[in-house]
Amino acid sequence: MATKATFLLCLAFVLLILAQNQASSVGLSISQHQPKALNARQYGITEGSLRPQECGPRCDTRCSKTAYKKPCMFFCQKCCAKCLCVPPGTYGNKQVCPCYNNWKTKRGGPKCP
User: Fold this and answer.
1) What is the tens place of the pLDDT at every residue in 101-111?
2) Other residues' Cβ atoms within 10 Å of the Cβ of residue 76
3) pTM score, two decimals?
């Protein structure tokens, strides 16, 4: 019984290698099929590249070092819901997301953390 499972596992591995070889010989790569918004370097950073359900984890990271976690999370999630992006890091970098950067309070201060 163990030899049958081992055989099937080896067969699956060989098929996976053959499929990868075929894709590379045709000149295809997985990264060529991904939309620009899913590019690992830009995903979640450029405006409109996040889905609304992804705002929570991004805002957790953005607000991780503040002493005012609750208001930071509130406004970060509000801004993310509107702009669908959160700048990278815990501070600054707002220039990569113009909507996030340009949304101001009534007094003219920044709305988004």
Assistant:
1) 899 999 999 99
2) 24
3) 0.59
